[in-house]
Amino acid sequence: MNGKRLKMLREEKGLTQKDLAEKLSLTPKAISFYELGSREPSGDALIRMAHILGTTTDYLLGNSTTKEADQKVGRGVRIPVLGRVVAGIPIEAVEEILDYEEITPELAASGEFFALKIRGHSMEPRMMEGDVVIVRRQDDVDSGDVAIVLVNGDEATVKRVKKQEDGITLIATNTSVYEPHYYSNKEIEELPVRILGKVVELRGKL
Predict the structure, then answer these.
(1) CATH value at residue 50
(2) What's the pTM?
(3) Choosing from 7, 159, 184, 186, which is the catalytic residue?
(4) What long-range pairs does 127-131 form, CB within 8 A, spacing at least 24?
(5) Looking at 42, 122, 176, 186, which residue is catalytic?
C-alpha cells in the first residue's frame, strides 16, 4: 500500500480519516496505519477503498502511475437495489427493484451481490435512513458481522449478528431504542431465521 497516495486521494475527495473509515466499516486508526505504511488493508478493503476514491487498486499499491479509474460505461457492474429493508422492526421484504448501484468488476467477481435500502433508525449513527448497503449473498457470516437476516421467512432486517452455542443475537447499533433480540437454535430452525448475506459496503445518500 502506498500510504502517500492514499492520503492524497482521500484529501482530494474532501474526506477525513474518520469519513473514509466509516465508509469502509473500519476505525480511523486503521486508515492512519494504512497512510503511514505500517499496516496493509485486506483485499476486500483495498477494492472498496479504490472504488470510493475513484482510483485503481494498482495505483494504491504503487504498481501503476494511472491515478484515475477507467470511467467508461460498462466498466462497473450494475446490481439491483431491492425493496427497502427496515433497520429496526422487521417488515416484509419487497422484491421490487427500486434502483441500481455499480460495484467494481473486482468486487463483482468475488461473489453474488445485491443492494438494499435502509429504513428506520436502529443502525444509526453508522447507517442512516435512505442509505444503501451493498450485500454479498451468503447463508452464513462470522460473529460480529452486519448481515441481512430474514425472520419468519419473509421479513428482512439489517443487524449485527452475535453467535452463541445455543443461538444467535441480532444487535442494533442504536441499542437505546432497539434492544438486542435473541433467537435459540430451535427458533432459528422453526421460524426460521435465515441469513441472506453480509453487508460489505455502506453508501450514504445524504
Answers:
(1) 1.10.260.40
(2) 0.58
(3) 159
(4) 127/87, 127/158, 127/173, 127/202, 128/204, 128/206, 129/87, 130/205, 130/206, 131/202, 131/203, 131/204, 131/205, 131/206
(5) 122
